[in-house]
């Protein structure tokens, strides 16, 4: 967007997500579409765009201390500018889903029947008694309220 049209990513997104008929556009509003058409008509532009992409990739490798002279290919080399980069923390796995035993679920249902909006101290008490994280209990209460809301 910035390289081809001279517009920010947000402006390009706005252009493409909310199209207007040609006669509804002002002269200034037509400029990006004219630039886009001119760019598409020039076959050499695709090569220029690929070279800019490769330059950005090389600059990124230099910034992150990756040796660009090595010929070994990595799965990360196939990432383009639109892919999600690997997380900052490296290969930290996603937290495992909390599974409740029948006893824990029964205790949570009883606690919910007594108070669907328990205080923080009640949540901490349940956390200690049921050997669960406070966040898991908080989520259970929220999810249980939402499920009941959907039923009624």
Written account of the structure:
- It contains 7 helices and no strands.
- With 152 residues, the chain is mainly alpha-helical.
Compact summary:
The chain contains seven helices and no strands.
Any idea what the shape is? elongated
Poorly predicted runs of 5 or more residues? 68-85
Radius of gyration (Å): 27 Å
The major pleated sheet works out as: none
- Overall helicity: 55-70%
Q: What do the pLDDT scores average to?
A: 77
Taken in chain order, the helices and strands follow as HHHHHHH
Q: Got a strand count?
A: 0
End-to-end separation? 47 Å
Beta-strand share of residues: under 5%
Q: Count helical runs.
A: 7
Helix vs. strand class: mainly alpha
Key features of this structure:
7 helices, mainly alpha, single chain, 0% strand
Task: Note the topology.
Elements: H1 2-5, H2 9-17, H3 27-41, H4 44-63, H5 102-114, H6 120-130, H7 134-151
